[in-house]
Amino acid sequence: MELSGKKIAILATHGFEQSELEMPRDALKAAGATVEIISPQAGEIKGWDEKDWGRPVKVDKTLDQAKPADYDALVLPGGQINPDLLRVEPKALQFIKSVFDAKKVVAAVC
Predict the structure, then answer these.
(1) Any catalytic annotation for residue 110?
(2) Phi, psi of 36, rounded to the nearest 5 degrees
(3) Structural domains counted in the chain
(4) pTM for the whole thing?
């Protein structure tokens, strides 16, 4: 599948399942999409890799900087910690709702 010209947001925070962020990110980029990591906090977020903390991932934009209208789709990586932290973050819920209400693709992993 060719995704050139498409811009995809991955919304995550600390404790995302490592493979559930990195594998979709890498596949989307390989298909030609521009992928940005969106998070409530700037800098880096740290993944969870099986039984311990994993590798950090650079945040491209914070929720305050990102606009849902700028993206063609949204990916939500799973994990035990990441979804629990995002679902109590009003800005994250509003971002997701805005993408969903615009009838764009929302992909929830695991």
Answers:
(1) yes
(2) -125, 135
(3) 1
(4) 0.96
